[in-house]
């Protein structure tokens, strides 16, 4: 029963599903859609400002000292996953719609998630400090690496009219607020830390807002009428297969690289997670004017799968640590 309880979608995932349903039934149209698009930009900037303000300076310093571990995690995130996506590309293009196949590539190019990587590392008894540093560094580098990887992986089919312009806009929308928040941490850090439980809902609300806008626009353009059910099921299967291949590979890499168990656990959870919180805003910029709803659908599916699977794996690793 406990194992089944862990597999139950969490409240945020249920809210995400409800948001997709709402966007499918009542999408924003016309002037309201334009206003919503501007509101999502503001919400994303505020979100990354708060992320910057939350990152302690000590974490940055500690991260620089454990460079070998971070290189392994970054290689798993930005080399191993794109290679898996590239290998699956021909089959994905045959089985899925072009938008879903592109979304699968985009998923493979995304940085690691921060909050859940740290939470699962802690639950499993891993190196939490290393997870904080690596996940934060991954998110930061994703601003530059994800657009570049999409240009390499998807080429002219990536629906990116101006990749360099997209990187500049991502820097303005994500990186600049992040850096500003971190620089202001000495002044506002204590207040932000005190509000951390409340600010978690800021993250979630921003994602829900962007997902509603993206899916609403996609529904207006005919997302569900143009995406057959078999393609959706195959996308979910592809995400499950990707996770099933990547997790054992990353664990093997961590063990063969000579790290201790705590570092191996940090590598496993930071190296196999993909960020919905960072991915949706990046997609909003990279694929502006494109089929955004279909492109982020694989990211949403993978997000839920990684939470369910990693919850079980983390609990088992934590239990083994306690027994040892």
From TrEMBL:
GO cellular component terms, A-Z: plasma membrane
Family annotation (Gene3D superfamilies): 1.20.1530.20
Keywords: Membrane, Transmembrane, Transmembrane helix
InterPro entries: Na+/solute_symporter_sf, Put_Na-Bile_cotransptr
Pfam families, sorted: SBF_like (PF13593)
Superkingdom of this protein's organism: Bacteria
Transmembrane segments: 38-55, 67-88, 100-121, 128-154, 166-184, 205-225, 231-254, 275-295
Protein name from the UniProt record: Bile acid:sodium symporter
Lineage of source species: Bacteria, Pseudomonadati, Pseudomonadota, Gammaproteobacteria, Lysobacterales
């Amino acid at each position: 029963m406990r194992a089944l309880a862990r597999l139950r979608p969490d409240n945020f995932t249920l809210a995400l599903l409800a948001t997709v349903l709402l966007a499918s039934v009542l999408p924003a149209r016309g002037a309201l859609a334009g206003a919503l698009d501007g509101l999502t930009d503001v919400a994303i900037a505020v979100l990354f400002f708060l992320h910057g303000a939350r990152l302690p300076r000590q974490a940055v310093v500690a991260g620089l000292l454990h460079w070998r571990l971070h290189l392994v995690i970054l290689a798993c995130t930005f080399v191993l996953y794109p290679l898996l996506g590239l290998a699956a590309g021909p089959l994905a293009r045959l089985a899925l719609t072009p938008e879903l196949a592109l979304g699968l590539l985009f998923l493979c190019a995304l940085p690691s998630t921060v909050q859940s990587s740290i939470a699962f590392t802690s639950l499993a008894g891993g190196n939490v400090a290393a997870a904080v540093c690596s996940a934060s560094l991954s998110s930061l580098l994703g601003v530059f690496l994800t657009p570049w990887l999409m240009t390499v992986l998807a080429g002219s089919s990536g629906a990116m009219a101006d990749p360099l312009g997209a990187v500049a806009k991502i820097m303005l929308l994500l990186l600049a607020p992040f850096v500003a928040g971190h620089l202001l941490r000495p002044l506002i850090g204590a207040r932000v830390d005190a509000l951390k439980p409340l600010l978690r809902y800021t993250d979630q609300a921003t994602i829900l807002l962007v997902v509603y806008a993206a899916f609403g626009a996609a529904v207006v353009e005919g997302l569900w009428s143009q995406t057959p059910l078999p393609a959706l099921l195959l996308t979910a299967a592809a995400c499950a297969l990707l996770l099933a291949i990547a997790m054992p590979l990353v664990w093997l890499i961590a063990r063969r690289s000579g790290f201790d168990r705590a570092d191996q656990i940090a590598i496993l959870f930071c190296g196999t997670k993909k960020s919905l919180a960072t991915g949706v805003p990046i997609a909003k910029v990279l694929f502006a004017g494109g089929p955004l709803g279909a492109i982020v659908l694989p990211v949403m599916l993978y997000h839920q799968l990684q939470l369910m699977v990693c919850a079980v794996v983390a609990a088992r690793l934590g239990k083994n640590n306690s027994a040892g």
